[in-house]
Amino acid sequence: MRFTGTMKVNEKGHLEIGGVDTVDLAREFGTPLYILDEAEFRKNCREYYHSFTEKRPDSLAIYAGKTLLTTAICRLVDEEGLGLDVVSGGELYTALKANFPMHKVFFHGNNKSPEEIKLGVEAGVGRFVVDNLYELYLLNDIAHAQKTRQAILLRISPGIEAHTHEYIKTGQIDSKFGFPIETGQAIDAVIRALELENIELKGFHCHIGSQIFELDSFAHTVEVMTEFMAEVYKNTGFMTQELDLGGGLGIYYTAGDNPPAVDALAEVIFNTLENQCQKLGLKVPRVVVEPGRSIAGPAGSTLYTIGAIKDIPGIRTYVAVDGGMGDNPRPALYQAKYEAIVANKANAKPVKLVSIAGKCCESGDMLIWDIELAEIKPGDLLLISNTGAYNYTMSMNYNRLPRPAMVLVGGGRAELIVRRETYDDLLRHDLIPVHLKNRKVAQIY
Question: How far apart are CA 394 and CA 263, in angstroms?
Answer without folding.
Answer: 29
